[in-house]
Each structure stands twice: as structure tokens, then as C-alpha cells.
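Hi everyone, sorry if this is the wrong subforum. Our group has a chain we'd like a structural model of before ordering constructs, and none of us has done structure prediction before. Sequence below.
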Amino acid sequence: MKRLEGKVAIVTGASSGIGYATAKLFAHEGAKLVVAARRESELKKLVEEISSAGGEAIALAGDVRSEEFAKALVAAAVRRFGRLDVAANNAGIIGETGPSTGISEKGWNEALAINLTSAFLGAKHEIAEMVKHGGGSVVFTSTFVGYTFSFPGVAAYAASKSGLIGLTQALAAEFGPQGIRVNAILPGAVATPMFYSVNESPEAQDGLSKMHALKRVGTPEELAKSILYLASDDSSFVTGTAHLVDGGISITRS
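Answer:
Right subforum, don't worry. Here is the predicted structure as C-alpha cells:
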């Protein structure tokens, strides 16, 4: 039995990295999908790959900062597949970095809008639909940064991503009685385009790899498996958690 057989899922940030791997894995496990991101061409390729493997998915390109886009994703799931059971709200950015005394208000607001507010707007409409069908699972992609420790120069990223943990707990407490589970994964460094964009040199990549207890960075596929666990009934008694999937970076200092 496939772990998401008969389920309908939304995955945001699906054009690359963790979101892409999650969408592929969800489809493999039987879910029907609405995949979302800004890059329409990349989403079309993803849908083609899922379809060629025997899965079913539709794509909707747009800006996760828009509440109208959040509504449209849920409406697309209901119109095409009749319901919504799972949401992986994965879209995010590093945002403006550098000394906090120099971060612009625009940069700060952009990080919060994409990393935190968009997740709230998504969950707001996803949960409203899920409760009609007796429950569901919402998963956010947070980070260890700003939770177990942080780095200089990433105040907007840390604040926006750690805010997801509070959102996770609040929504889990509020909607648990209606069968809604809400959890967050907290990745360590993962080999995604975002990772390479901020760690361009082999030296930087090697240095960050060695900060993990496993002495390597994760793969998008490894993170997708943890999201699948939280999305599926395998985690039926798990809600309100900040789920570290960080290769031991949170417990390593050498």
C-alpha cells in the first residue's frame, strides 16, 4: 500500500530542491498533486516527469506572498481532485544577508513575507478545506538556524524561519481537535541550488559539511522522506513538532 494513496497534496517551492524532491516522492507514494512555484517552465517539467512515471499532477505558477494565490492553489486541488489532505509549504529564500545594522527594511520584509507570511496564508486556506474532510497534515520547512544556533548576518532568515515553529505549535493546538496535524521540519545544510548560491567555493561547501556530525550535507531526497513521514499516517500521533533533520549540525561543535 502506497503511503499517500488516495490523498491530494499541495507542494510549494516545487520547482527545485526539497520541494521538487518532495513532489516526486509524494507522487510515487500515490498522492495526486498541485505543485506551485514562480517558475512555470520548471513546474511543467516536473508535471511531465510525474505523469511519465504514472502519477497525476497539475501546476500553478505564482507568488506565494499573495493570498489570492494561496486560495487558487486550494481551489485547483478541489476542482481537479475533489479534496485536499496534505500541504507541504516549502517555499522560502535566504533573503538579504549581512550585518544586521545594514539590513534594509525591504529585505527584512521580503524574508518575512516569503518565509513566514506565505506559510500562514497557505495554511489558512489549506486547513479550512481539510477540516471539511475530517482532517489533514500540514508541513512547514523551517531550519535549525535560529532554533539550535545561528550564524552572523542572517537575522531576517533566522527570524522568519524560526517564526514557523511558533506558527506550527499554534495551528497544531488550535486545529488538533478537528483532525489537523501541523509539523515543521528543520533541515541542516542540504545540497540545493540555494545552498550552492550562498556557498559558492569548494572551501565554503567543505567547511559547512564538516560542521555536521555526519560530516556531509543532506540531499533533497533525504528531506523529502522526512516530509513524507509527517504527511502520511505513519505520523498519526505526531503534531506540533519541530522535527530536526539536520545531520547532527545542532549537536556538533567540532
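For your construct planning: The first helix runs from residue 17 to 28. The two ends are 43 Å apart (CA to CA).
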